[in-house]
Amino acid sequence: MENQIPENLITQARLQRKVAGYSLYFDLTCTAYGELVDLQADILRWPEGARRLTFGDDWETIERELRRSEPYFRLGVALAGQGVLTIGEWETLTANIQTLRELPEFRDRPGTGWIADPWLHWVWHDTPEGTSALDLEMVADLFLNKHRSRVLREMPDQPAAFMEPVLLNLLEWIPEYHFREVYVALGRLNTENGQQVLLRVLEDRSLEEQHEGAICGLCLHPSPQVREGLRVYYRRHPKMPDNSKVHIFSTLASDRDPALKKWALREFPHEYIRLSEVLLDILRSAEMPETEIAGILLKKIRGRAPIKVIYSALQHFVAMEATDLLPPVEDLKKLIEWAAAQDEGYTLRPSIAALLQRRPAPEMGDFLQGMTRQENEKVVAAGLYYLGMLGAPAHIKAVFAKVHDERYSVASQALTACKQLLEKYHDPELLAFFVAGINNEDKMEKLKFLQLVTPQMWSDGTDDFLNILIGQLNHSSPSVRIAALEALRRFGLDPASPCLSDIREDRHPSVRKRVNQLFFPEN
């Protein structure tokens, strides 16, 4: 149709239907006679010099743009006939179109005139033989874009011979956000040909990444052959996005077909491990021996899978009861070094530390202390983290030496590690350091230490330190007074203590509020 129309008589426009609450947008390619050349959402061939109308353009702008080329009016007739446009909107549209039809360029050439039978209804229900594939595509595209629920509701009532060609054509260019609707529609036809088409696409077509997720809907397709096709598709497209893999395997793991279920349960952990809760459910459902599960997880760790994959594997190891199945210490050492250089490697630290606590190794202390002597900031911070969790008294000096490091992440991690080591070993030098920090005249330093202190830092009674904290209640800064109150609460100060009577009447409202929250919640 299009190659018979002079280029200067083809125009495109995006029409906007403005109605309270929602809008409809149509991309049109049309002629002066109202013949529809193309109607799509994304793929348009714009003639040179034509300006593409935006969603914000009003009817005056549209009219001005259409005056530069030619109007399209047949779509308006169709939309009105289908009840898509209200009478008032139809009058506005026709008034603009009628004005444009008076242009000499239109008036001087024979036109096709108005179509009595609404165009959409005509093509959808009474398509004559010989209707072009382009027309069929346009109908399906319009319905998929604007009437998705109607497509899914009415599709099974349409003859398969009519709908399959339409939907197959759509597969070649349908916008990504409607890709799944095409598959769902083909699946609901539930004809032998429809199933074979799905299998062919699954097996032979390399889809763009943004379309891959839509394929997951086929996990629930009524045809076992189609569901089986997912297996073939997966093997031929190893770069399938991770979300699709998780969906396919987790859905087929509960499939009613025993062969598919067995395949999914066995294949899933070998190919992709992401969310720990999904992983645990799948592996438990498979009733695999713990030794086999451990081997699969260790392979993921050694293979340096993505951080989230290793995270899930470590989480599963942490949940295991058998100590002899945990990763060897040498593997954990290598993992620590590798993770330290990764942007999100810090997320693995708690799990690695938990595993090392269950599998103590004397040589780990020297290994971690060696990390603190390296130049890389991330590596040093990682070493300090593990020393805080796993270090011995012999490592305290190495950790303490980094407290004043000029690199913030190192100094901050060293201070936290000092707190953890002091709670375990009650080193007098570290204790004096924290007391000095609380008495520091610099407000920010004082706050930093007040927020860190805990009763576990003292091996004997804490009465002396309580007096230090109580003394901070007289500080001029409200934030310091609040931090001191929070520390006193951690130390278990009795609400009846006389030191609280004055501060309950503190001049600053935030301090008074915090006193009540911490010690007198009933107020």
From TrEMBL:
Keywords: Repeat
N-terminal signal peptide: none
Pfam families: HEAT (PF02985)
SUPFAM superfamilies, per the entry: ARM repeat (SSF48371), Lipovitellin-phosvitin complex, superhelical domain (SSF48431)
Matching Gene3D superfamilies: Leucine-rich Repeat Variant
InterPro entries: ARM-like, ARM-type_fold, HEAT, Lipovitellin_superhlx_dom
Protein name per the record: HEAT repeat domain-containing protein
Origin species: Flavilitoribacter nigricans (strain ATCC 23147 / DSM 23189 / NBRC 102662 / NCIMB 1420 / SS-2)
